[in-house]
Amino acid sequence: MTDLTISKELAQFLEASPSCFHAAANMKKALENENYTELYENRKWQIRPGGKYFVTRNGSSLIAFTIPAREFSGMRILASHSDSPAFKIKENPELESDSHYIRLNTERYGGMLCAPWFDRPLSVAGRVIVKDPSSGTFLTKLVNVDRDLLLIPNLAIHMNRDANTGYKYNAQKDMLPLYGSLTAKGTFMKTVADAAGVEEDEILGHDLFLYNREKASIWGASGEFISCGRLDDLQCTFASLRGFLAGAKKDCLAVHCMLDNEEVGSTTKQGAASTFLRDTLLRIHDCLGMSREDYLIHLADSLMLSADNAHAVHPNHTEKSDPSNRPYINGGIVLKFNANQKYCTDGVSAAMFRDICKRAEVPVQTFANRSDMAGGSTLGNISNTQVALNTVDIGLPQLAMHSPYETAGVKDTEYLIRATAEFFA
Ligand code: ZN
Q1: Which of 109, 65, 54 is nearest to 86 (CA)?
Q2: For the chain, which has fewer Cβ within 10 Å, the N-terminal or C-terminal residue?
Q3: What is the pLDDT of residues 305-346, one digit of tens each?
Q4: Å from CA of 350 to ligand 1 middle
Q5: What residues are neighbours of ligand 1 (ion), with CB under 5 Å?
Q6: What is the dihedral of CA 93, 97, 103, 109, to 10 degrees?
Q7: Torsion of CA 318, 323, 324, 330, to 10 degrees
Q8: Is the distance from CB of 247 to CB of 52 less than 8 angstroms?
């Protein structure tokens, strides 16, 4: 498959995944198309050697795995995250302004770049929870108000002379989206209910986020760049799933996971700091009649790839990157290092990963923060507090991380697909 075909499919996945719940639903669909069987945490599992399965938690985290037909010695685990920084709709969201406008009350989810959220069409996506009157169970309905619905207007330069000289955005003052004129009063939750196909008064709970309506674009002198919202980390998620499905998975317990809440520290019931991965791995061993010791032996013989996008050298700020570890867009998979182990990569796991990429004939670049600059963290080291194993932190190079319109390379997605297929070979 060509880079362009893969990039177009990535663009479709990004556009179809305006929230983490949509990303998980789309992944579930892709796995079902490949005859993976869904398991549920609240039911008994019937699993067998040679089988392929997946399980979700909270509708926003998902773990897929295949069990080899013959005896296996270790596990290959590939992890990425489903969430991206965005503004979350608060309860009682409508706010009247000057008896003329209706705005929505929101709060930050994660650490986003604020400026690019202004002056572009936005809408709302996520989930609502309703109760099924016949069975008494709670049902989740995905929501995407699939039209230009909201916008956060900038303040004119004449009214904010500091706008271009370092202005600090106030999330409660500057960032609230405009929803309508006064006639829109009292209609927002009805709009959401209509999009979810439920009655407004049926909605008992919701998790709704703003998203950028701008479509993905493949651009540049030779079409070398791809831009869209949520490339961090759905580009890795998309490539990981492709690599997982393509890999032979014959000699190892192959595990692909997409976890939620990386952008807010992972300490939720479905995040990397939760027991989700450990519970799933232990349960697989239990259901196959293996012991706790078997699990620990397998763990000692396992490798995890933690895949989360990385900062490419910025064309206008080349000085912000480390002097000798400088990833570029379309230059290959980025291997991330940090002496304080915010990235898990060490000499051993780096060697293992370089070997995989060599076999897959995929280029590898390296990333480290400048020594005078604190960087971000990711899910590898957090996951290791629950499931400790050799881990390597990798990612795809991108610009404008945590903008609602990020930029990456058209070649790099294919590199990660090929390397992860080799990882599962
Ligand atoms: Zn990320």
Answers
A1: 109
A2: N
A3: 999 999 999 999 999 999 999 999 999 999 999 999 999 999
A4: 20
A5: 232-233, 308
A6: -70
A7: -10
A8: no
Ligand 1 centroid – CA 28 distance (Å): 21
Residue 376 has pLDDT above 90, yes or no: no
Taking the centre of ligand 1 as the mean of its atom positions, its distance from the CA of residue 33, in whole angstroms, is 27
Tens digits of residue pLDDT in 6-31: 999 999 999 999 999 999 999 999 99
Give distance in angstroms: CA of 180 to centre of ligand 1: 33
**Residue 355 DSSP label:** H
Q: Compute, in angstroms, the gap from residue 308 CA to the centroid of ligand 1.
A: 5
Burial class of residue 304, CB neighbours in 10 A (0-12, 13-18, 19+): buried
- Give φ, ψ of 289 to 5 degrees: 75, 20
* CA 390 to centroid of ligand 1, rounded, Å: 20
Q: Does the reported pTM lie above 0.70? A: yes
- Could you tell me the distance, in angstroms and rounded to a whole number, from the CA of residue 261 to the centre of ligand 1? 10
